Amino acid sequence: MSTSDQDKAGSFSPVMIEDVAGGELPAGLPDVAALAQMANEFFRSAPGQAGPFGGNQFGGAQSAVTLPSMAPQFGATPSSFAPPSAERLPSEADVQRLSGSAPSAFELSLAAAPVSPNPSSFSGAGFPQSALADTIASPFSQPMPVFDLPFPNFEAALPAIPRMAALPTEADVTAALNSVSSFYFLEDAGALSKPTQAKADRPAAAAISPSLLPDLQLPRKQFDVDSVRRDFPILQERVNGKPLIWLDNAATTQKPQSVIDRISYFYEHENSNIHRAAHELAARATDAYEGARQKVARFLNAPSTNEIVFVRGATEAINLVAKSWGKRHIGKDDEIIISWIEHHANIVPWQMLAAETGARLRVAPVDDDGQILLDEFEKLLNPKTRLVSVTQVSNALGTITPTRQIVQMAHRYGARVLVDGAQSVSHMSTDVQALDCDFFVFSGHKVFGPTGIGVLYGKPDVLADTPPWQGGGNMIVDVTFEKTIYHAPPARFEAGTGNIADAVGLGAAIDYVEGLGMENIARHEHDLLIYATKLLQTVPGLRLIGTAKEKASVMSFVLEGYKTEEVGAALNKEGIAVRSGHHCAQPALRRFGVETSVRPSLALYNNYADVDALIAVLRKLKNGGA
């Protein structure tokens, strides 16, 4: 779907429907379910209503407004059932203007949020953008690049709003003014110019009660990036006298105020070691820590909290698997498969294990776009394959790998699969049950949480067959000088005092992301990635590294005539933070004939202005500026 198509799909203007007490409805009217869908979309769009954008700082539960409690009762006037934070619904004078040949100012104010100079799928005001966005001329002569969305069936999750045939005729409006009351919904802006079927030709409508209009739980479509940015205090920072533009998200993400506040609250009110003490603060700390584990399990769609192990980060999680499960199950002449685009954290532990055990490390190749060649990967699989360990999103290239297919192939040969989700969890929904992976790892600081905390997910049978990798307190049932009895997972793998406060902070970060909705985040970032990629292609001498069809966030490049560190320094002078170097992925970059690259990477708080600032500096460099 193109940006303009998205704008069309989300564009609305007001249309009046006669009160059912009058016994008639305009021609082409959808059925009751369709009416309910439009009504829900209207009340959801009102700022301050329930859903992921309601409540305090996007913290509300993601659920639709229950329509019957919001819908007008017969005999009510429009102003008596206006949503609490909406300005008002149309008056009779407004209705009269609907019969004119052109939309009124009132109609346009409902139909469109202010149009940004940069095309976007979502309006800053929280309402879908109008069709006016389609009048923005593209500055590009080439077609916009299209990437696949980062998870399957995305479009199915955002159904189009059913369309009514047209606005009322003058006769319809006159009749409506004589009725008891009127319903108003939001409708396609294109309907403003469509004629309406004559009233006499319309069949009589069956009686409809507002209680029959169900809440259809429609997905949210709005994403107010300006409001999101206000949740991140560091974005108010100035660097070299310029506002900070954070485009180093693949290295680490910034933290919302809610995460900062939650960690502070822990140290002010809950700080204690967990589990064994009998005092109040220990109980509070234990509840907060184990509550965070529950949030992680929900976030990954893991069946049980017993499958969630807290570690320092994705790197420690991979090392745990290599040194504990791997040491028990991988021996001489066994094989481990990784891909050419892995982070060093998913290469070095397996090299160490192979060197220690006599196993063999094999590497799946990628094509010139940075996509894993599945046919070649399958050729590497054989009865000696014990483990496949692969990234879900490449940190150097942004490639989204076909992880589900890789898991299925590996399981056919009896191999276990570890998925490195460090770069994926902030950009797409994660479902370990759907992936069917045996292990899944990620770092909290890559998903707006604190540093020093991460997660290892493991299937119950795999964790049960994994020995402890560290010994100490908290992971034991009983200790004598003759033997030690260990706890079952996950406590078996959490020796000593853990990073309690930052686990709680990770739970708060997950609350924040889930409050916004991963589908909303993915759509916003997808549009921004398309926009940024196209602009980068207009910079003379710039070569993108990694051009896979399915990408997320990352836009590595080299600029002719400049070292990558020179580009990074020039951007830093303007307050723009990017990563320049090998990104702990030297084999991946060398596959494309380079040692280093400049790597801007996007997150949910980035906007079109951030991209424009990046491009302006690059063009200035190519024009001889500094």
Architecture overview:
This protein is of the alpha/beta class and 626 residues long. The protein folds into 4 domains: 3-218, no CATH class; 226-247 and 518-622, Aspartate Aminotransferase, domain 1, CATH 3.90.1150; 257-310 and 455-516, Type I PLP-dependent aspartate aminotransferase-like (Major domain) (Aspartate Aminotransferase, domain 2), CATH 3.40.640.10; 314-421, Aspartate Aminotransferase, domain 2 (3-Layer(aba) Sandwich), CATH 3.40.640.10. Helix content is 33%, strand content 12%. It has 20 helices and 19 strands. The protein has helices at residues 3-9, 32-45, 67-70, 92-97, 105-111, 170-177, 225-230, 257-270, 280-300, 314-329, 348-357, 374-380, 403-412, 432-435, 460-464, 500-516, 518-536, 564-573, 586-591, 608-622, and strands at residues 13-18, 182-187, 238-239, 242-243, 245-246, 308-311, 335-339, 360-364, 385-391, 416-420, 439-443, 454-458, 476-479, 484-486, 542-544, 557-559, 576-577, 579-581, 597-599. Strands 6-12-11-10-9-7-8 form a 7-stranded mixed sheet, sandwiched between helices. A two-stranded antiparallel ribbon has the order 1-2. A two-stranded antiparallel sheet has the order 3-4. Strand 13 and strand 14 form a beta hairpin. The longest helix is centred in the middle third of the chain and has 21 residues, at 280-300. Residues 1-32, 43-90, 94-168 and 173-221 have low confidence and may be disordered.
